[in-house]
Amino acid sequence: RLGSSSPAMAKRSWRDVQAAGPVPNGESEHVGVWPLDEHNAKLLDAVHPRTWETPDHPDDFVYDLVAVGAGAGGLVSAKQSARRGAKSALIEQHLAGGDCLNVGCVPSKALLRCARAAAELRRGDLGLGDGDGGTAVDFGKVMERMRRLRAEIAPVDSHETSRAVGVDVYMGQATFVGPHELRVGERRLRFRKAVIATGGRAKVPPIPGLEQTPFLTNATLFNLTALPKRFTVLGAGPISLEMAQAFRRFGSEVTVLEVAPEIMGAEDSDAAALIREVFREEGIQIFTNCIIVSVCHRPAETSGAWPEIRVTLADRELVCDALLVAAGRIPNIEGLGLEAAKVECSAGGVKVKDDLTTSNPDILAIGDVIERPDTRFTHMSGTMAGMAVQTALFGDSDALPVNAASRKLSELVVPRCTYTEPEVASCGVSNEKLASRANLEVDVFKVSTEHNDRAILEGTTRGYVKILCRKGTEEIVGATIVAEHAGEMLAEITLAIQHGIGLSQIARTVHPYPTLGEAVQQCALNYNRARWAKLGAAEAGYKS
Description:
By secondary structure, this protein is an alpha/beta fold. It has helices spanning 38-47, 72-83, 98-103, 105-122, 139-153, 159-164, 218-221, 238-250, 269-282, 378-393, 432-437, 453-458, 486-498, 503-507, 518-529; strands at residues 62-68, 88-92, 168-171, 174-178, 181-184, 187-196, 200-202, 230-234, 253-257, 285-287, 292-298, 308-313, 317-320, 322-325, 329-331, 345-346, 349-350, 363-365, 415-418, 423-428, 442-448, 464-470, 476-483. The strands form six sheets. Strands 1, 2, 3, 4, 5, 6 and 18 form a seven-stranded mixed sheet that branches. A five-stranded antiparallel sheet has the order 19-20-23-22-21. The model is unreliable at 1-8 (pLDDT under 50).
């Protein structure tokens, strides 16, 4: 039994389980993983063990900090607290590692690597493959590789690893029963401080018929073992576009539906236009300004076959085998007992102050569960966890968090990246439309990657670096990079904004050749070149 406190408990593996569908199941509304092969069994043994010895403490024991949710935010909160001398606990009802490890960053990037390889084999300029688009992809092997690598990464997020650094790990649903007490199963845990880090899930739009249709979300997409011939994606944000490009490169016919006028939301319009052009060339259909009237389906006729899904728009009807819903995220706040904890929330998430404390000053909230959709990234969850630990346990100290430049969320520069090819990475006030919304006057510096030697050699010259500075100054306020490995290139600019490094200083920093990173320096050089000294006509030329 999960949560048994018997000291003589025999450790059981998921390898011994015969499953007919995703596991674990029946313990929560969360979807499990599938298939239960050796790789997923290894994953589950790490992040949701079949047997786990519940910590045993006297009734009057009080934790210094309890983290609810074992995604990136909860893991960092609990582990860092323990490493810094606190008595900490971690509670998770589903899979440790959260969305990132199990159904997000990790599996998606594994698929993107294979998709890139498939695309390169089809290129005619590399001397690889047949160059005519005929290279076949073994989708089963692609997914097995993903499962193997995910299981290889899993131990760092495992319950055993958390316990090894001094964290008490509880498996089950956490429900607050008071401002300083919560319940996990039959156990009651008392705490001085708590961190809510329960994450979020895919938002399902209220489209007639959608709930009755067997659609996919990120929680179920990576359980696929066969490639759908026709793949439709609802939404045009990062998850949507990354998976659209990947599945097209695997061989699916792909259509993207977006209700907004433009893909990629608040990202730079130049970036959105470039990605749209790339997708068109790769054979991906994109429809914007969509009015989705209804969704219906005809069940699969045989076991292992696909259903026939029909998406009716105001001006057309689309038929597909698989429908991925990736139209935003909503926070996991149900069943937490927030009212008993005196924690205020809305449909958008837990309300937090700038220091991440809630309406209960002894309870903080971080990551995707808070009412800040602009910070819903794994790297921000981990960063906020460090901030929360510093505030919760060392509030009397002026010291900064070990992994953040401030204890205030408003003072952090948030980097973000969409891992299409080319990637789109940005931070701060990253484009003119955001500057306009902020009533901020800016100077814009932009350089194309078409003349970057490394881009030429890689055969990936479409892209650019755009840096925005406060008008009349070299103070960088934001940037957008569109390029291969743009995410890596962005870190330099994020550092500069966060720590007040001016654009001229980036220009005066030596960058290795040949790298795409030189494009950042070239963009910065535009600022210096506008100000360099020049010889006058009377001074120029040799005079004897």
